[in-house]
C-alpha cells in the first residue's frame, strides 16, 4: 500500500476492518469535515452506506442506499471516474441532489472504488468551504479506493 498515508494504511490492516475509522482517517488526511463510504450491493445497482461522518441525521435515509447514476456518488459509480464540485452549494449542474445542500458542505469529491476495472462502491469527502481538489489529491483518493477494494469481502 505504497503512497497511502500511514494512518489509512494502518486502519486497512485491522481485522476486522472498522470502515468508519478508515473513512475518518481519509477525511482527516484531506482536511475535510464530511465523508461517506458506500459499497456496491452484490447483484444490484445500489450503493449501500458503509460508513459516514458529518451527514445530518435527517439525511441518513437519503444516503443509506443510492442508485448508480444518482447524486455525486451514483454518478462517480456510473462514470467510473471521480466527480468533483468546487462548491456544492452553488452548483447548478444537477449532479448534486437538492438534499445534498443540507450537508452545508461546499468543496466535494466523490470517487469510485475501483480495482482491476471492477466497481466496488464509492468514497466521498467534502470541505465546509469552496475548494478545488488537485489532480494529486484526486489520484490519491483513487489509490485509497483501490486499497479499500482489496479489503472488501
From TrEMBL:
Residues 21-148 form the GAF domain. SUPFAM superfamilies: GAF domain-like. InterPro entries: GAF, GAF-like_dom_sf. Transmembrane segments: none annotated. It comes from the Bacteria. This is GAF domain-containing protein. It comes from Maribacter litopenaei.
Amino acid at each position: 500500500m505504497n503512497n497511502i498515508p500511514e494512518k489509512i494504511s494502518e486502519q486497512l490492516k485491522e481485522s476486522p476492518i472498522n470502515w468508519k475509522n478508515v473513512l475518518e482517517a481519509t477525511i482527516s488526511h484531506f482536511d475535510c469535515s464530511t465523508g461517506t463510504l458506500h459499497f456496491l450491493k452484490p447483484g444490484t445497482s445500489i450503493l449501500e452506506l458503509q460508513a459516514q461522518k458529518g451527514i445530518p441525521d435527517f439525511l441518513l435515509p437519503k444516503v443509506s442506499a443510492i442508485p448508480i447514476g444518482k447524486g455525486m456518488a451514483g454518478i462517480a459509480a456510473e462514470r467510473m471516474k471521480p466527480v468533483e464540485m468546487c462548491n456544492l452549494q452553488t452548483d447548478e449542474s444537477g449532479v448534486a441532489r437538492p438534499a445534498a445542500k443540507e450537508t452545508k458542505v461546499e468543496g466535494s469529491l466523490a470517487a469510485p472504488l475501483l480495482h482491476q476495472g471492477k466497481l466496488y462502491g464509492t468514497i466521498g469527502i467534502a470541505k465546509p468551504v469552496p475548494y478545488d481538489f488537485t489532480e494529486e489529491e484526486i489520484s490519491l483518493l483513487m489509490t485509497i479506493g483501490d486499497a479499500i477494494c482489496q479489503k472488501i469481502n
